[in-house]
């Protein structure tokens, strides 16, 4: 009798699992911890997406900090993917819809400001680049190394909301001086340093007061100085 009962339990378990649909690859690729931050430079918060079913959706777990920083994200309990990640409240209402453009970064529509960005988390990164908050003194250097070139970022009357004027100081490494950097622009979650005639450096947040070069070649970081 005991053997028959055990066999029945095993048969029931195997039959129930046989009908379970495999998790789509685009869902698996989205699982993990993400930072959601707005384009106004305010601190964002983190949300963990899992492949655990939540009805017809998937489980989403916001961090405690979301309650104060991004209340809409704090209400999220589920998510799905439709050309981008969508977050839903327990009642099924869609809270935020992220789309991917040619830059592949996920963000909400600019028609409903502030724009929310959704990026993979990095230690120490809690907000999106915001031009007014970047005014001040910085240095370009190899990671953890001495200064290669001091930079001063400032706002001038000709600068737009996402732009800054850049001046290099001395001494400045010849490889950087040749770029003739003179302006900065925040482009979504990226900080672009532009020079003349058509030179540039692309940086992304790497810490509370630091950015790291995105392209290949020798690593380079921009760090705020006291």
From TrEMBL:
Taxonomy, superkingdom: Bacteria
Gene Ontology terms, MF aspect? endopeptidase inhibitor activity
Identify the keywords attached in UniProt to this record, alphabetized: Signal
Q: Identify the InterPro entries for this entry.
A: Inh/Omp19, Protease_inh_B-barrel_dom
Signal peptide extent: 1-20
Alkaline proteinase inhibitor/ Outer membrane lipoprotein Omp19 domain sequence ranges: 31-103
Q: Where is this region: Disordered?
A: 197-226
Query: Which Pfam families does the UniProt entry name for this protein?
Result: Inh (PF02974)
Which protein is depicted?
A: Protease inhibitor Inh
- From which source organism is this entry? Methylorubrum populi
């Amino acid at each position: 009798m005991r053997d028959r009962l055990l066999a029945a339990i095993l048969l029931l378990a195997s039959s129930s699992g046989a009908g379970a649909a495999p998790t789509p690859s685009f869902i698996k690729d989205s699982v993990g911890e993400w930072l959601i931050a707005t384009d106004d430079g305010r601190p964002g918060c983190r949300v963990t997406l899992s492949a655990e079913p939540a009805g017809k959706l998937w489980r989403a777990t916001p961090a405690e900090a979301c309650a104060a920083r991004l209340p809409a994200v704090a209400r999220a309990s589920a998510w799905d993917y439709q050309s981008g990640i969508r977050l839903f409240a327990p009642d099924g209402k869609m809270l935020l819809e992220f789309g991917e453009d040619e830059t592949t970064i996920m963000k909400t529509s600019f028609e409903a400001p502030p724009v929310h960005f959704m990026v993979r988390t990095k230690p120490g990164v809690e907000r999106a680049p915001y031009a007014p908050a970047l005014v001040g003194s910085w240095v370009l250097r190899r990671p953890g190394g001495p200064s290669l070139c001091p930079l001063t970022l400032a706002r001038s009357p000709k600068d737009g909301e996402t732009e800054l004027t850049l001046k290099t100081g001395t001494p400045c490494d010849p490889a950087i001086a040749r770029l003739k950097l003179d302006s900065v622009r925040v482009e979504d979650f990226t900080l672009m340093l532009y020079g003349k005639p058509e030179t540039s450096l692309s940086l992304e947040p790497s810490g509370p007061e630091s950015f790291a070069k995105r392209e290949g070649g020798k690593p380079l970081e921009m760090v705020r100085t006291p």
